[in-house]
Amino acid sequence: MKKLVPILVLALILAGGGLWYLAEHPARSESGVLELYGNVDIREVNLGFRVSGRLKEVLRDEGDSVKAGETLARLDDEPYEREVEESRAQVASLHARLTLLEAGNRPQEIEQARAQVREREVTAANAERLYRRQEQLLQNKTVSIQERDDAEANYREAAARLNSAREQLNLLEAGFRVEDIAQAKAELARAEAALASAELRVTDTVLKAPSDGVVFTRAQEPGAILQTGTTVLTVSLHQPVWVRAYVEEPDLGKIHPGMKVEIHTDSNPGKTYSGQVGYVSPRAEFTPKNVETRELRTSLVYRLRVVVENADEGLRQGMPVTAKIVR
Asked: Where in the sequence is the domain holding 314, given as residue range(s)?
């Protein structure tokens, strides 16, 4: 009988050790199911305007559901509409100027220049005849040298005015320079870009939901003067919904992206959510305090992301969950 006592004590020690091991390492079970613990991670987005201005209206409140593309808030767009009107007028002015340069001078202007050339040709020819006559009369001592010089001056002036009229006609017939037209095109393009920017600023006075979700926080009220990027609403997105879980190093080799996962919550144990492993961190970290017990907080674990495929309103931000991976 005395020989059986040490054997019974040893058996009790081994049984107690086995129970302690199973209690401290619930993730490793002989059933082939790896249990991990983590929290629900739902993405949130802080929505604000890309332009500054006075907040005109906020159309949604905390707890309201929103759809992708739905208008949530508006700024007073009057200052930006005025910019659009000014830019449109500038574009119209520069477009008209470019059309004028490309079309060249009017036919009436060219015909007027030709008439002026013909007029000055007659004047120059008459001045030349008078000068030649005065030159002959001077040889006969009939006119003075001064009269001959005056006739010569009139002739040379008429010839110069004729050359000037001919050059003016050539300019009108050739039209505007290529460089002037290129400059006008560049100025028009710059004005059109300014108009597009002004129209974009008007569009930016309307705040729209980027995707389906629920308004989590309403941070501003109508009448507030907002700077660019000031948060007006915070929206909790319906998709994607992830679970941040952690696995110890001995079990790291048993997990790989794409594995199917069953997710359970304490609030609704009968509801099973399905998902799959989407990411496994390559770097170890200490167990977060909101996941494990005090004894395991100093353990090194690897974070993984589980993408929930059939998420609903039963999963809330930060909710603790149990993830079961069937190997």
From this structure: 26-42+239-326
